[in-house]
Amino acid sequence: MIIVLKPRSDTRVIKHVLERIEALGLKPHLSEGVARTIIGVIGDESKLSALPFQAIEGVEQVVPILKPFKLASREFHPEGSAFDIKGVRIGGGGLAVIAGPCAIESEELLFEIAARVRAAGANILRGGAFKPRTSPYSFQGLGRDGLKMLQAAGERFAMPVVTEVMDPRQIEMVVEYADILQIGARNMQNFDLLKECGRTRKPVLLKRGMSASVKDLLMSAEYVLSEGNRQVILCERGIRTFEDSTRNTLDLSIVPNLQGQSHLPIIVDPSHGTGRPDLIPAMARAAVAAGADGIHIEVHSCPERALSDGPQALVPDQFDRLMREIQALADLFGKTITSRTGEAVACARS
Amino acid sequence: MIIVLKPRSDTRVIKHVLERIEALGLKPHLSEGVARTIIGVIGDESKLSALPFQAIEGVEQVVPILKPFKLASREFHPEGSAFDIKGVRIGGGGLAVIAGPCAIESEELLFEIAARVRAAGANILRGGAFKPRTSPYSFQGLGRDGLKMLQAAGERFAMPVVTEVMDPRQIEMVVEYADILQIGARNMQNFDLLKECGRTRKPVLLKRGMSASVKDLLMSAEYVLSEGNRQVILCERGIRTFEDSTRNTLDLSIVPNLQGQSHLPIIVDPSHGTGRPDLIPAMARAAVAAGADGIHIEVHSCPERALSDGPQALVPDQFDRLMREIQALADLFGKTITSRTGEAVACARS
Amino acid sequence: MIIVLKPRSDTRVIKHVLERIEALGLKPHLSEGVARTIIGVIGDESKLSALPFQAIEGVEQVVPILKPFKLASREFHPEGSAFDIKGVRIGGGGLAVIAGPCAIESEELLFEIAARVRAAGANILRGGAFKPRTSPYSFQGLGRDGLKMLQAAGERFAMPVVTEVMDPRQIEMVVEYADILQIGARNMQNFDLLKECGRTRKPVLLKRGMSASVKDLLMSAEYVLSEGNRQVILCERGIRTFEDSTRNTLDLSIVPNLQGQSHLPIIVDPSHGTGRPDLIPAMARAAVAAGADGIHIEVHSCPERALSDGPQALVPDQFDRLMREIQALADLFGKTITSRTGEAVACARS
Amino acid sequence: MIIVLKPRSDTRVIKHVLERIEALGLKPHLSEGVARTIIGVIGDESKLSALPFQAIEGVEQVVPILKPFKLASREFHPEGSAFDIKGVRIGGGGLAVIAGPCAIESEELLFEIAARVRAAGANILRGGAFKPRTSPYSFQGLGRDGLKMLQAAGERFAMPVVTEVMDPRQIEMVVEYADILQIGARNMQNFDLLKECGRTRKPVLLKRGMSASVKDLLMSAEYVLSEGNRQVILCERGIRTFEDSTRNTLDLSIVPNLQGQSHLPIIVDPSHGTGRPDLIPAMARAAVAAGADGIHIEVHSCPERALSDGPQALVPDQFDRLMREIQALADLFGKTITSRTGEAVACARS
Known about the structure:
4 copies of one chain form a homotetramer.
Chain A: E1 2-5, H1 11-23, E2 28-32, E3 37-41, H2 45-49, E4 59-63, E5 83-85, E6 88-90, E7 96-100, H3 107-120, E8 124-126, H4 144-156, E9 161-164, H5 171-177, E10 180-183, H6 191-199, E11 204-207, H7 214-225, E12 232-236, H8 254-261, E13 266-268, H9 270-274, H10 280-289, E14 294-298, H11 316-332
Parallel strand pairs in A: 7-8, 7-14, 8-9, 9-10, 10-11, 11-12, 12-13
Antiparallel strand pairs in A: 1-3, 1-4, 2-3, 5-6
Helix pairs in contact in A: 3-4, 3-11, 6-7, 10-11
């Protein structure tokens, strides 16, 4: 941590800051210059962050040097993490292709969509039973009935399943049916939810909040990790910007950015990231070319009848075409889309 | 709702859209032009929003006309709402001055701060017992012990108290001690939490999310209102922008913007909105001049020893000076800062 | 400047960085810790910024300490600057009230509006002769004819006049007619234009770019100042954010933020800052309460017939009402709205 | 255009709006509903946009239907545009690889870099002679001397050259030496500069402004096109968001977004878009996978000695490796990197 003092700080201020640092058992380094005096402290920043140096009169600026996350950092775990979820590998060369409807609406529809995405090459099935809707008057999901349908579809088509959990009180139920717990963008800083998910032993798919910085995302991952759950998969799904022709702005640079500082796998959701089916295939290809460990795509047999987010879903035929491109890119970059049985999915290759 | 078709749409598409509208029992108005065909539907937009017209092939754009919130709208409730909370009036000419420490750290400190802010003219006491901290390694609050201290301080200094609730499982406990439930920015779209707060009969202070639009904020208020709780107080606390010299960008235009379309009171929090004590007084004055129904200020006797957000707190002397300016502005604009006994607070007048 | 090295940097890297610093005639301070090595350099940062230390292999982060602007800084000029423009004082307790139509459309209309705003208490007249329009098919301004009308109206109603200059080739002409040169938001980083305005001796009204940070704005002011023109007036006019119910988000915290680090006067334009007449009065009041040195308001007798930005103009009656509030706030905060003759404008007092 | 009236509008307002529309020779369609009355006008929106309907009292909202750009639209020119610049094809399957230093610093250095990027597979050389620097104290470019060096390097290594023009007064000079005129992000709405570039017959590389929407970018292209210059190449280079770990946020979704509504080629600049060499290769690959018509990369032999933007340049070895990946992606997607002689560049294939 670097503490920069205001111009013309008197010795009383300098002494006060030095004492506060030494009281923590740390050693300050003083550099006095013509324009500014700076005090460097190298050591356990967690001790330092306990003290709001910024609030000391005479302090102009405090610059943290060490990253505030630990378990999520690549320094802590230099190798990239890879998880095996019922035979599906995410990270370490394994590419996750998560597909399915936004919301689970009926067993028939879910099975129809699951059959199509599995045939096209997806290896994980998604579907929402609890839906975070902006309006209290919108469809809120089927709850436990939806979870049962999702589990059944996963069994039938040999795919692990992922579904969102919104409330700590739902976790016990969701854990019964789902293979992966999703924490949605709106709950990325719902810290009680993060902690409770951290106490399960299910992999957690943690979506980036709409205005979360890369550091914020890693701090939220740290909440899960610090409870003992090491299986966190990060997910970029677009951030809020001034651009209004897309639902969000998909920030693909987060892929190499995260890979440089964290060992956790990172997947990309171009469905929420753009909100426009005409842009999803290009962004899915771009995500894989950027090095993502997976993609997350909403697919619906009849988007115009979907009860949630229909306008941003691909139809199965579009998903088929996309998967042929994704498979070609996976081949080019040496990635494998493994199925639940641990073998490469064959059907997407045309 | 206006549905704009793509250029050169054939009659099959037009017929399909018209049929979907009529199937909902609504009447479409067709306007065919050279460049575009548009279909207007005036009626119950809640029926319309159930159908994702955007997903119909041939549809270029869907423009909603009616606002998606109802109970929060000024059309529903043309008079501005005003709440009386233990004698303190918010809205309808009553100015709330909410002050106190970020986190409750000890009874002694809380009482010391409460005494000072009450003497300066604050009429509501704040303090956090459950703290949403970015880092799992930061101080997380004293929980029930903190709530007890807060209640005691409120009794001692005759101020209703407000505190944050982060998890639906905490509500039962918090309701025992607090007069107002605060929903923090990070939980503005924690819909289960909103619903549970809506089921209590305590006033709810709903803070705007860091990237929430004005409409999003009102939709979240709608979640609380639609559960039967009519006492929602909105709070601007800054949004995330590219500007990095302040913690957030305080969007004061939300004050008249909300007042034009909603009847709910709106208060402003310049402490989180700027994150800088040197900017708080100017922004508090601006908020009152803009017509806000209250301000929310963090005050700490010794910011450099605070366990949470110390750098953004005013010290009591600064708060004293600010309150003299706030009182003068309240007088100018005909607003009253009422105390718990229903009388105007006198002490802030210099 | 602080240079933070990557973890486990070897001595070769450290030596290389130290040598580069010493080659500039500066003295580095080395602090080696367990987690990181940091090198502080205190001295002439302009020398340092010539070298891209960030590009040196082994360097993790470079943290500048000194501000990159000089002539605009309060350290350079501790007293706030105040300018006297034909008797109108801006800064130092003088409040500028700049009003007039967006574009100069005809002499008759301009005189009509000028008479009304002068009577209401404005002390500077604005009007555009060269209009930066998003579309090449929109009205682009009357050019020299418009400038002549503006000068005549200024003479007739005893107000100095301000108008925008968009192209270095226009400056010679505009200087003939205008008392203040305005640089619009879209040209805030048109550096050749800044330099040319800096070579005139006319005051410059520099508007903040739509995505300019506070630092960027001051760096643009520095371009004008470094050419020898000391009369720069800064202007906040809203920034681009995700919020789409207003044209821009007016960032009022820039007022105290700038006042803390710069001596230049700062005025606020709520017309462009909100784009909505229903929000302008509240934001104008808030600007004055925040401590601004002036406001900038578009007024049009018949907004629905305006050739540019009609929807965001106040009508004269609205401006009259606003000015009564502004005058009351000026009185409260000890500010004076001086007219061209150096006396306080009387007519706005009701 | 759709005009939505406020609730409970009386017939006088409706009549007034209808008359204004009919006065323009257009035919309004009136739809009266319970909650709102809406008036649709289909026809020449350029006529309509002349009238600020928003400013009419009683009007709640005005919704444009047609896009405000024409010559840039795909409706105007359904085939994608492709340009041949001295044998280098951009668009229509031709992939531009623009590389070179940020600023031209010396002939020796420029030739060294040009040789390396040409050998690696670049087909267009870039280099700045006029530099838009945030600080007036930074290196501002070599001017005409730099242009001469750039032209010579282009000749020597058989690459067309592109360089930025910042001021209308420079255009005559720059046209003598450059094959493509670049308009930088800071000047994207410098409308006089756009018009002057539109009057030349040189291709224009138009960079997106830091806070320009997709529509704003196309409107700026329209300025160039409307002067008769049909060769406009768009360039995404990152936008400003709250994320502060990258210099900008690269918005790759603009690639398919633009391709859907415009015929103009679109290239991507990950150097400015990220500001971090560790992220550039991933983003360049992603751009090509997203369907971009080219990439724009800064390369410097010794970034730590560069006079401008060194920290974001790749070194030649990194560029070599990147080009092998870009070539593989071009092959996969059927794109060709043509050299000045019209033949495919061979050297990048490993």
